User: What shape does this take?
Amino acid sequence: MKILVTGGTGFIGSHTCVELIESGHEVVIVDNLYNSSIEVLDNIEAISGVKPKFYKVDILDRPSLEEVFKENDFDAIIHFAGYKAVGESVSIPLTYYQNNISGSLNIYELMQKYHVDNIVFSSSATVYGDNFEVPFKEEYGQGDTTNPYGTTKKFNEIILTDFARANKDISVVNLRYFNPIGAHPSGLLGEDPEGTPNNLVPYIAKVATGELDHLRVFGDDYDTPDGTGVRDYIHVVDLAKAHLKAVEYATSHKGAEVINVGSGKGYSVLEVLKAYEAACGKKLPYKIYPRREGDIAVCYADTTKAKELLGFEVFRGIEDMCRDSYNYMIRHKK
Ligand code: NAD
Ligand code: UFG
Assistant: This one.
């Protein structure tokens, strides 16, 4: 298949491009490089042997985006491009709605105009909000989101579901990711955000490399075994493989589906820290801080539907995730 990957030089997109190429698909990337770099293309090539065709295009730039659709006959789209910082979305909500909703609408309208029938969308477990019991099941629907970023994911799921309902040829897979971490085992692809990371593992990684002096543990008084927040971490390579299965599923079914992509297992902040200490071979200092606003105590997936519809299961554990993250950090720093 010829697959358009928006946001394909980003963290999850780049790993997905590798999996798609290694399975024989042709990949075309659209990314404005807002949160990624052009060198990622060489690294995808170093791993997979193929340098994907690349357009430095902003999905908000409708005429340039349309040129991409005119020049290529796509079988499917995997739509990663978007902003993802929860805290930032609270401060600049309109920027988030503009990029994640208006940008996505450009993709969906061009999809319709150029008869591309299949799409996989990057949604998030954040759409469950604080309303439901764990493990989160797709049949719960959507909860109350607590920030504009989460609301953009919720709206995109609704827009795509309505789109598929109105167009019998359209196939949509909304993938609800839990917490993707880790890196490609080659050390060539991974995540190393600019500035102080918001997310747990990128933060721990910078404590491990000495760039930050201690981990701030946000709350130790949750109703969890050690009092710290519990999340469902998934290795980014496993998540990338889920996209391969999802895009293949999309092309052989019609209608819209929502599918969780997680491991089904929860780890606390202190458990992740311990696993990272084992991976880097040193003690990592931490201090307890107040709870972070908007955080829930526990979040993990019911993975039954991913297994049943996609035949998807994770193969990499927390040790692999921490080892590959650290390996990327030390190679990347050189
Ligand atoms: P990322 O920031 O590494 O990748 C997103 C890519 O999209 C970047 O390369 C960025 O340059 C590009 N982009 C952003 N706006 C664009 C625009 N207007 N035009 C063209 N390109 C644009 O993020 P990621 O972690 O790889 O996440 C990918 C997707 O998955 C995002 O939609 C994100 O919201 C979603 N998601 C991520 C997580 C997570 O924890 N990483 C969890 C749930 C959902
Ligand atoms: N945490 C800390 N210290 C930190 C960062 C995080 O203690 O410096 C804790 C949090 O309180 C939470 C856990 O580590 O208990 C995980 O936090 P992350 O920020 O890594 O991840 P979240 O679960 O808050 O959010 C992530 C993505 C969202 C996505 C959500 C659900 O950032 O985009 O998972 O998929 F919506």
